Amino acid sequence: MTTRDRQIERRWEQLHTWGPYGLLGVSVVLALASSGLFDYSAAQWWAGWSLAGAALVLQLWWHAVRVRRPGRGRTPSRTGTAYYVVRWAVAFALTWIDPFFAFYAASGFMDADELIPGTVGQRIGLFASAVTVAGAQAGGLPLGSGVQWILFAALVLANSVLQMAIAHMTEQEARRSRERTETITELERTNTALQQALDENAALHAQLLVQAREAGVADERRRLAAEIHDTIAQGLTGIIAQLQVVANAPDLTTARTHLDRAATLARHSLGEARRSVQNLAPIALENDGLPEALKNTVAEWGERTGVRAEFTVTGIAEQLHDEVSATLLRIAQEALSNAARHARATRVGVTLSFLGEDVILDIRDDGQGFDPLALPERTRTGGFGLDGMRARAERIAGTLAVESEPGHGTALSARVPLVRHE
């Protein structure tokens, strides 16, 4: 419900609460002002004042019911119907004594739908109020001539039709308001369900990424195990076999022959080992240097995650040793992976700086940050994380520094010696 709707509802509530008081007051004032126009007997005076007092007491009682039991006072009920009937009877009697009390009788037009349950009961209540008001408009009850009766019938019809039309429009508006409320409620439920689905989808996506990474690691391990078994392990087995033959050789010629074969197998195995190690180097460095590989990695990561990512090179770029390039690239990839999984960042900056004898890789994000002293210990089943990146840097005589604070992002800096490509 909008603020405007609440304001309108509050004003209607105020009208239903204070309207009968105002109409009764207007009727009393007009009756007193016009008392000289009517020849009231003492009995009529006493009856009029008694009924006016009864009407006031009735309104005070109903006001207390509405305040004490809001639901009962605002929802059609037997109590509301009884109040409506008694008020109509009092208003009818007052109008019979003085036609100006028709203003008080008109209060029945305002709240029939709120007090009387059922459409038929509401229509009867409106018709009864229309009869009272029409009698006053026709000159007052009782009616004394045929013209008054004709005028009374016309006024009853006009008042009834008018109030029925207003009641019908009010019902239609109430129905449309309920439909709007139901539609808004349904939309809110739909939006909530959609948000839950999006959250579940995001969690499933993250789970799939983890599973895909684990599957990739497992596949790579199986590939490496198979390659080692098919090359290095088999070569070493052959060398051992040749050396065992040499140990039991009956003559020098046979021993030399098997030694030559063992040397050949050793050279071949060494070549296979070098090839396997070279195959472990990052694919991104096959055709590009470290700056270009980092630029492509950052751009690809930004497109994949939707996070604004920027890469900058400072200083004079140089061709680095393969191990240095591979180490820094792996650190950058791990840092970006951590930012995607944990940081919830909207912006990431990667800077590669060539400073004389050192190369510095800085990765900064504006994410949620963390307390470096409160990190859990790394387990055998965990990822490489900060410990893995620090180990990579230290393996080539470098260092890794991390600055972070909850709510203020993370800054990671890897500093390694500048070892040029041979």
Tell me the layout of helices and strands.
Layout: H1 3-33, H2 42-68, H3 70-74, H4 78-97, H5 102-105, H6 108-115, H7 119-137, H8 146-247, H9 252-279, H10 290-305, E1 308-314, H11 322-343, E2 347-355, E3 358-365, H12 385-395, E4 399-404, E5 410-417
Helix pairs in contact: 1-2, 2-4, 4-6, 4-7, 6-7, 7-8, 8-9, 10-11, 11-12
What features would you describe in this structure?
With about 425 residues, the protein is of the alpha+beta class. Helix content is about 70%, strand content about 10%. It contains twelve helices and five strands. It has helices spanning about 5-35, 40-70, 70-75, 80-95, 100-105, 110-115, 120-135, 145-245, 250-280, 290-305, 320-345, 385-395; strands spanning about 310-315, 345-355, 360-365, 400-405, 410-415. A five-stranded mixed β-sheet has the order 1-2-3-5-4. A hairpin with a 5-residue loop joins strand 4 (about 400-405) and strand 5. The two termini are about 75 Å apart.
Quick structural overview:
By secondary structure, this protein is an alpha+beta fold.
User: How many E-type strands?
Assistant: 5
**SS class:** alpha+beta
Q: Specify the oligomeric state.
A: single chain
Mean pLDDT: 82
Q: What is the alpha-carbon Rg in Å?
A: 47 Å
Kindly report how far apart the N and C termini lie: 74 Å
Low-confidence stretches: 379-384
Largest beta-sheet characterization? 5 strands, mixed
Helix content: 55-70%
The helix tally amounts to 12
Q: What are the secondary-structure elements, in order, as H or E?
A: HHHHHHHHHHEHEEHEE
Shape: rod-shaped
Percent strand equals 5-15%
